[in-house]
Write a structure and sequence with these properties.
By secondary structure, the protein is of the alpha+beta class. It has a domain of 35 residues. It contains 2 helices and 2 strands, in the order H-H-E-E. A two-stranded antiparallel ribbon has the order 1-2. Strand 1 and strand 2 form a beta hairpin. Helix 1 crosses helix 2. The longest helix has 17 residues.
Amino acid sequence: MKSQSASLVRASISFSQDIYQSLERLAKQKKVSLAWVVREAAERYVAEEAAGGGEVQKRDSRSTGKVRRGTA
């Protein structure tokens, strides 16, 4: 992961209960903050998309937590 700069931007986001619990579990296992896990995932996603990563999982537009396969 890139070194963190002093110019981080704060964002407020919502997760389904299942995803939030999974993120908390991952953070605890890795002994890092939940925010670190989310930043790491976001950086990887952006890098993959920039590299033409192909197929990605898209969330259902109603934010139900259901996932469908497709391209971005």
